Amino acid sequence: MEQTDIAKFEEAGKIGKRALETAVSLIEPGVTLFEVAEKTEKLIRDSGAFPAFPLNLSINNEAAHYTPFYGDKKTFSTGDVVKVDIGAQIDGFPSDNAATVEVGNTGKHSDLIDASREALNTAIKILRPMIPLREIGAAIGAKISEFGFKPVRNLGGHGVARYDLHSSIFVPNYDDGNGKLLKPDQVIAIEPFASTGIGMIHNGPGGNIFIVSGTKVEKDEPIYRNFSTLPFASRWLYGKIDKPEAYLKSMIANRYVSQFPILREHNGTLIAQAEHTIMILGDRIKVLTS
Description:
Blueprint lengths: L2 H24 L6 H14 L3 E2 L4 E4 L2 E3 L16 E6 L1 E3 L2 E2 L2 E6 L7 H17 L6 H14 L3 E2 L5 E5 L2 E8 L14 E5 L2 E3 L6 E11 L9 H6 L4 E2 L10 H10 L3 E8 L6 E3 L2 E5 L4 E3 L3
Antiparallel strand pairs: 1-5, 2-4, 3-15, 4-7, 5-6, 8-12, 9-10, 9-11, 11-17, 12-16, 13-14, 13-15, 17-18
């Protein structure tokens, strides 16, 4: 890996960490999700980077992929279990990190939150070049099970590459039998999800997060110029594009853009998440978002 690339990944990791800490600190009962998202993403831009993806604020049985729309009035309530997921990008080199917050700090769901965080720490401790991916998953799944919860089996970590937030590597959250080895000179995100339910998510409605799809979009198209192949929020179009709602609707109708669905467990269940971005080098690993 080129030293200049390493430096960009490292800086994206530092800014992504600060953004996550900022978002977590802003979450209080009665605060709008829109306010938290706007302030957090502004911090990233003010730091000389861009959001690698919109701030995800996924509540209770939602695992991922909800971000507020423009002017969203939705607020946090005491006892909500909120997955806070954000990253920064420098010249297309992204970071990705997440934590779970219980709104109001009642302590009722501390074990669930600890399960995902400790599973992440356990995975990092055994991480090394050429480790089988199934071993990482086995460590994650075992730790979550120790806490009495289920690892989410159809979500996992992923590779991270330039302008590609989810590259081809998949890091399972249980022993899925995958014998592939984690080779050096790669960047990955490890993200355990712990569930009070059965540990399987399904697609819900759209969560206001979009991505350029396919190869038909012209390079001078506003969405490509502004966001390239990284995810973006519908609210990011305001101030950049005239009549943003009509523009986005047209892009979707022509299949130039697709929307991410909210990922959910069954009603009444709760999910916690923790995540770091990690660089795998030949002689060491480096947690970029710690």
